[in-house]
Design a protein that fits this description.
single chain; two-stranded antiparallel sheet; alpha/beta; eleven-stranded mixed sheet; 462 residues
Length: 462
């Protein structure tokens, strides 16, 4: 049945949220027992959560608990699956090992040692994030910056290395486990602006994390306002990757510095910068509350563009009806559907991944049910080491069933938009499980990519 989302008049919303702001309250692994809604679970279920939360980061806030989860439908509720640990997120062997440690010892160091051992098996930094993506200056790596594609730089401000809640599928989970060796961050705006000024081919800056919208506006000002200087005119677009519209829309409505934040964004837009809020919506339920409607309205009034993206996730949105409704609702509220991703090869991937053939089927079926304005979304896209690879379809060529693939973005820009083919594999979930079609030994980009890995070539050589 198609859900109905209420239309709320803006003046009613404004009065409601100013008069009764909601207090931000967060729970982590150590406060699982204090979440009243979990009292309906058995002791065994709670213990299973604690086992998984000892390995993978857990954080949820009261807004998500009170407004987004249907507690009459757990554990199947999609938002419950999105934020709360589930036993299947670890392999059976890893789950049993951690269970043994937790049952036999109260020593936090023993628990941490076992957790770190398991984490290393979960591919904490996929797609060469710590090698090929990191730029160098004077033979030294620049912390907190990734530069994978020629035109786009990612920046990880140190004040944004947490989120209002954690997604259980998150491919950046390694940012949140307290290991500095696995964390990207930079607290020096000067280094960012210096790097940008020296590379005139950079047109886009993506501020990411964690979630940069956990920062106070004063910090955001220090990163954004210098981009208005003439020497940084070439940086045309500023993207802000955030889950805040889902997990804490109050950030734009009644936080202490909400108005200051919106004024900053409006100032940047009026000065000629394109500001894109890269909003992560994994399910239409996240767009169903009155306060998120108000947050979207206020953001759009500031002149920013809100683009939406999400991976396709088993247990959460593995259903074309969910995607079609979500995209239609996004268009209705003035948002631009942007990406459907394939669940990345890291963390709890075993629990959330779906075969590539299924991902393409869900994408195709959902796209058929939306108008042209909803067909701006690209995908299903794998964010692999060589680049973003889109699954364009499945077909038969000369009697061989194949996946049709292409790069949407690539380490070598010349690879982009070049179609290539892989043998059809109904079980494959990632690029490394695919083989070239038609008897080819390697994909067309493989030799050059192998050389990049060997020499650690960065994208700025192109």
């Amino acid at each position: 049945m198609t859900p109905v989302l209420p239309f709320i008049k803006k003046q009613i919303l404004a009065e409601q949220f100013v008069d009764s702001p909601e207090h931000f309250q967060v729970y982590t692994e150590r406060q699982l027992d204090k979440i009243e809604a979990l009292s309906q679970l058995s002791k065994d279920q709670l213990f299973e959560m604690k086992v998984v939360a000892s390995v993978l980061p857990f954080r949820v806030n009261k807004y998500v608990i009170d407004h987004l989860i249907n507690w009459r439908d757990i554990p199947n509720d999609p938002i419950f699956q999105l934020v709360f640990p589930q036993k299947g997120m670890l392999s059976q062997d890893d789950f049993e090992q951690m269970t043994t440690v937790l049952r036999s010892s109260n020593d936090r160091s023993a628990v941490l040692e076992k957790a770190n051992e398991i984490r290393q098996r979960l591919n904490p930094h996929p797609a060469e994030q710590q090698s090929l993506n990191v730029p160098y200056e004077d033979e030294e790596p620049i912390e907190g910056i990734q530069h994978k594609y020629r035109e786009t730089v990612l920046f990880f401000p140190s004040q944004g290395q947490v989120c209002h809640s954690f997604c259980s599928f998150c491919f950046r989970w390694a940012q949140f486990i307290g290991d500095k060796n696995l964390r990207f961050s930079n607290k020096e705006a000067q280094k960012l602006h210096s790097y940008l000024s020296k590379h005139k081919n950079i047109s886009d800056l993506l501020i990411t994390g964690g979630d940069p919208m956990v920062m106070k506006t004063d910090h955001m000002v220090s990163y954004l306002e210098p981009l208005l200087k003439p020497e940084l005119d070439h940086v045309q677009t500023i993207r802000i990757g955030t889950k805040s519209l889902s997990f804490w829309p109050q950030r734009y409505v009644n936080d202490v510095d909400s108005d200051q934040l919106l004024a900053l964004l409006e100032r940047m837009v009026r000065a000629g910068k394109h500001i894109a809020i890269m909003a992560h919506f994994n399910h239409w339920r996240e767009m169903s509350t009155p306060i998120v409607h108000e947050a979207i309205r206020r953001l759009r009034e500031s002149g920013v563009v809100i683009r939406t993206q999400s991976p396709l996730l088993n247990h959460i949105n593995n259903d074309p009806d969910v995607w079609a409704f979500m995209w239609r609702e996004q268009v209705r509220q003035g948002l631009v559907p942007y990406y459907m991703f394939v669940e990345r090869d890291t963390g709890a991937r075993r629990y959330f991944e779906v075969p590539l053939a299924r991902a393409w089927q869900v994408y195709r079926e959902a796209l058929k049910r939306v108008s042209g304005l909803g067909r701006t979304v690209r995908g299903p896209s794998m964010s692999t080491g060589p680049g973003k690879i889109e699954i364009q379809g499945v077909t038969v060529i000369n009697g061989e069933k194949v996946f049709v693939l292409r790069f949407l973005q690539a380490r070598n820009p010349d690879w982009a938009q070049r179609p290539f083919f892989a043998q059809f594999d109904p079980q494959a979930t990632w690029l490394d499980q695919l083989k070239p079609a038609f008897g080819d030994e390697k994909f067309f980009f493989q030799a050059e990519y192998d050389a990049m890995q060997k020499k650690q070539i960065s994208p700025r050589v192109y």
